[in-house]
Design goal:
Elements lengths: L16 H5 L10 E2 L2 E2 L5 H7 L9 E2 L5 H26 L23 H14 L14 E8 L8 E12 L14 H13 L14 H14 L3 E5 L2 H12 L5 E5 L4 H10 L2 E5 L4 H14 L11 E6 L11 H10 L3 E5 L14 H5 L8 E5 L9 E5 L1 H10 L1 H4 L6 H15 L6 H23 L5 E2 L4 E7 L1 H13 L2 E2 L1 E3 L9 E6 L6 H18 L6 E5 L10 E5 L1
The structure holds pyridoxal-5'-phosphate (PLP).
The site of pyridoxal-5'-phosphate has 14 residues, from helix 7.
């Protein structure tokens, strides 16, 4: 079932801001959904608000076909029935139970684990567990080597065969710009730094762990983002979860997108602020919360909120959607709220200069109060950053738990980030970085277009290198992962609880390091498996116009 449909059908019109900001409008040829015009554009909006978006915004979330939804629910229903049956058999010791059981002297305790998730893990996830945590024994580059393993107890335990599946095309790592390498200038520079500084720092930034490398990195990050100052941390997850509590607290209001990453959710919860959730990328829902917050203030006392903080991501890693940043900024200015933008997936991967979603929309970075991002994806490193005004960064240096209590970033990792960032900026005197950014954009559009043309349901924005392909049915999650690996394509499949229960999917990550041949090979294998498992659910059919070179208008859409 569709949870939202904030985009348009591929090949349709681009959205305009006023429809979202001001509610309903008359629609030429579509319906109004989640405050957005589906397959239609308000003519007056085209005139009034076209200026807010400087580029077309194509985003698609095709509805789940009714039959597929019914079959998916039936699939889960059957699995659940069998789960209860098997739990019954296990309780009566008719079937062997591999699960951890409570100690005899704790029998009268309430169960330690949440019941449904435990049931789900035991009876559903266990059947397809072989698709996850596969041990990789190489660089997570465009190809990876995977250690072969087998199970003789239905996925409860695995044993290695001693063989390695070599040269698997990697469609799963977040290596957007191809900087995850063990050779080349980044790896060489990091090796030199490793010899000079060693691998660990053994102290926090506030004590003995403040290296010149960290300061160099922070100046570079601030320059890259176009902000006054930046602070870096050893872990991306902790950057969110430890800094949000330093920025908000009791009496503050956090407005968070419903699909925000767990690190943002944890940070918001730890802060003690009141949290309200808006529908994914839905500006009407966000505006309603902002308006209510201003009108009603805090519950009971009705005193004004001490602070309102909006939390959004640049690219949403499960949906492949891009935040409607121009509209979010317009709203935050209108209601005088603060904006925290997590660019974990978008930094490096979006925008003509690879500087993220702000660059992509051609906006001023100073309009975002807190620019957060990670180095784990496009930079092939580890850790996170916060960028913003000097006052903000000085404040965080004193108040963030990750500055005071966490060991600072490993020096060779800092060097990996410095060299890759300089390359993207062109500060290394080459155009290599820019070429990678352009290559990623080209690969992304090509890969997404080809999958859509084949008839798969593909979620997200046409410029997002995160490409979710909808599988829906539980049996197809495991089958897709296994069939793809048999064909030497490494993919990530995702199901509940990372997605809603019936919206299981495969999530591809396109990289600049993928050659056209690799993408074509992956595409032909995906198509083959798609036919085998009957995954081509889309009702939009794209006819490639092959007599023209590939560009935005190369496809025409027909609908059954
Ligand atoms: C949006 C978002 N924020 C934060 C993180 C955490 O970053 P890291 O993996 O670098 O710890 C992730 C991880 O994937 C993410 O997707």
């Amino acid at each position: 079932m569709p949870r939202y449909s904030t985009g348009e059908a591929p090949g349709g019109h681009s959205y305009l801001q006023k429809a979202a900001m001001n509610g309903s409008c008359k629609i030429e040829n579509g319906g109004l959904k989640n405050g957005y015009v589906k397959n239609g554009v308000c003519p007056e909006d085209r005139i009034l608000n076209g200026g807010l978006y400087k580029r077309p915004f194509h985003e698609a979330f095709e509805e789940t076909p009714m039959l597929v939804a019914v079959l998916t629910y039936m699939g889960y229903g059957i699995l659940t029935l069998f789960g209860y049956l098997r739990d019954f058999l296990r309780a009566w010791k008719i079937e062997k139970c591999h699960n951890a059981t409570e100690r005899e002297d704790q029998r009268d305790f309430v169960p330690l684990y949440q019941d449904f998730e435990n049931f789900y893990t035991r009876n559903l996830y266990m059947r397809i567990r072989d698709n996850w945590n596969r041990p990789v024994c190489s660089v997570p580059g465009e190809r990876v080597d995977i250690m072969e393993r087998f199970t003789d107890d239905y996925n409860w335990t695995f044993k290695f065969t001693g063989r390695v599946i070599k040269g698997v095309i990697n469609m799963g790592s977040y290596n957007y710009l191809g900087f995850a390498q063990n050779s080349g200038f980044c790896a060489e520079a990091s090796a030199v730094v490793l010899q000079q500084y060693g691998g660990g720092v053994c102290s926090t930034r506030q004590e003995m762990g403040n290296l010149d490398k960290h300061e160099e990195l922070e100046h570079l990050v601030a320059e890259f983002l176009g902000v006054d100052a930046a602070m870096t941390y050893g872990m991306g997850f902790a950057t969110n979860s430890m800094n949000i509590p330093a920025l908000a607290g009791k009496g503050c209001l956090i407005l968070s997108d419903e699909l925000n990453h767990a690190s943002l959710v944890l940070g918001a919860r730890l802060s003690g602020a009141t949290i309200r959730i808006f529908k994914h990328n839905n500006m009407q829902s966000l505006e309603k919360l902002l308006r209510d917050a201003i009108v009603h203030g805090q519950p009971r006392t009705h005193r004004p909120w001490r602070k309102i903080l909006i939390l959004v991501e640049g690219i949403y890693s499960m949906e492949g959607s891009i935040v409607r940043l121009p509209e979010v900024i317009a709203l935050k200015k209108k209601y005088k709220a603060y904006l925290y933008l997590d660019e974990a997936h978008s930094i490096g991967a979006l925008g003509p200069n690879g500087r993220g979603v702000v660059d992509y929309f051609g906006l001023d970075p100073r309009d975002v109060d807190i620019m957060m991002g990670t180095f784990t994806k496009s930079f092939g490193g580890a850790g996170g950053y916060i960028g913003g005004s000097k006052v903000l960064i000085d404040y965080l240096r004193k108040h963030s738990h990750s500055t005071a209590y966490a060991t600072s970033m490993s020096p060779p990792v800092a060097e990996q980030i410095i060299t890759s960032m300089k390359c993207i900026m062109g500060a290394d005197g080459t155009s290599l970085g820019r070429e990678r950014v352009e290559q990623l954009a080209e690969n992304t559009r090509y890969f997404r277009r080809r999958l859509t043309e084949m008839g798969f349901i593909i979620y997200g924005n046409s410029d997002s290198p995160v490409v979710p392909l909808m599988l829906y049915m539980p049996a197809k999650i495991g089958a897709f992962g296994r069939e793809m690996l048999k064909r030497h394509i490494g993919v990530v499949v995702v199901g509940f609880p990372a997605t809603p229960i019936i919206e299981s999917r495969a999530r591809f990550c396109v990289s600049a390091a993928h050659t056209k041949e690799m993408l074509d090979e992956a595409l032909s294998k995906i198509s083959e498996v798609g036919d085998l498992l009957q995954l081509k659910y889309s009702r939009h059919h794209f006819v490639p116009l092959l007599d023209r070179p590939f560009d935005e208008t190369t496809y025409e859409e027909t609908e059954d």
